[in-house]
Protein 1
Amino acid sequence: MVTEALEASRRAAKSLGTAFLDCFLPRFCAVCRTRLSSSGHLCADCAGLLKPEPFSYCPVCRFEEEGVGSAEWPPGADCPVHGGLVGLAALRAEEPVLEVVHRLKYSGERWLARTLADLMPDPRAFGHSPGSYGVMCPVPLFRTRQRERGFNQSSELGKLLEPRVGVPFVPDLLVKNEHTAEQARLGGRARRRNLRGCFGVARPSVVSGRGVILVDDVVTTGSTASACIEALRSAGAVRVLVLTVAA
Ligand SMILES: [Zn+2]
Ligand SMILES: [Zn+2]
């Protein structure tokens, strides 16, 4: 009873505080920057355009090549070729979400990580309990790129997801050992060649015999995810779930 009353007064104080702050610090939509009158960080238009429609897919072959969508291949079914691997994304990799991701990565708008992390799916909604995964880590950047950018966008997303997903987040679990050409500039086969063997697991004992949740911003061809999965599997990961904003 006392706790409930305390909780109610805390909530009231919080909303009063927010209203008070809004008088002095107007808030703007994270995407289009129009002024916001309600809570949250997206205006109604942007929230509509970025409405999550979470789906699962195979992060290696994307299912497309295997005929997903056909009657004998219901959505959400495991890829028979790549068992133990699953990809979950909130949105299809197209505009406007790609522009938001681009701004986070290349314009240094680090605060957009919160907007994007909030869209990302909860693995529990797809029947993946936190207990099946021992650790969560980001797709790493090569150290010079991380220095240039000042942060790793996947790590920003992972940190924000940790309390919601309920799996410990270890930012430096995977390392990128080589500087590679920007994936976006390469074709499919060149992408895979570009990344083969360039990721390593810094602490294999953390991965061995456990499930790993790999966090990234966007999966396109799946070549980055595949190269990371290869490294995690060689370190003994029993299953890998690739969690992204878009795919
Ligand atoms: Zn907006
Ligand atoms: Zn597959």
Protein 2
Amino acid sequence: MNKDKKNKENSARQKGIPKSAETRKRMSLAWTGVPKSAETKAKISATLTGRSLSAEHKMKIHDALVGKPHSKERKEKQKRNQKIVMNRLEVRAKTSAAQKIAQNRPEVKEKNRIAHTGSRSYNWIEDRSLLPYSGEFNLELKERIRKNYDYTCMVCKLKEEQLTRKLSVHHIDYDKKNNIPSNLISLCGKCHPVTNTHRKYWTAVFQCKIYRRKF
Ligand SMILES: [Zn+2]
């Protein structure tokens, strides 16, 4: 009788017989570090799949791991798993809803307002005396803006030559007196009226678009 067969028979006979904590500990130590065959690994995985751990068991694992540095491999695995979880649609919807609630809290709103005021604003210009007067929202300035955006509607991307009318020049912050170039953007006659509703949304969209542009 070969050793492997004997082992199997022993294990079958002992199945179901409860073992003392001491014996289990000894067995565990004896098997620690012994490489498992693919077949064994598959068996273990099949047994464990779908099984949920008790709170007590989870706590035990947690206690055993606390303070231990994570291996590079484990960190990468965690990162991958997190990415998969974060990308699940229901998780994304949940995160987005939670973010919306958080952003609407008055103290957060106030913080954001302060963070984007004055020199921290997207529209901040060091020397305002170099800018055109507010009365200078004229043909020349509008033409400059259209040219700056390559005579393109920044929403639908249609070019002026494809349209029957010249492009409109839109004030990103809806302040008609704020005529600095970084507050102006070219829009077609169809898209411009659309920006009259959901103003906060459109301001954010256009500010993102102009953020890295040079004027
Ligand atoms: Zn358009």
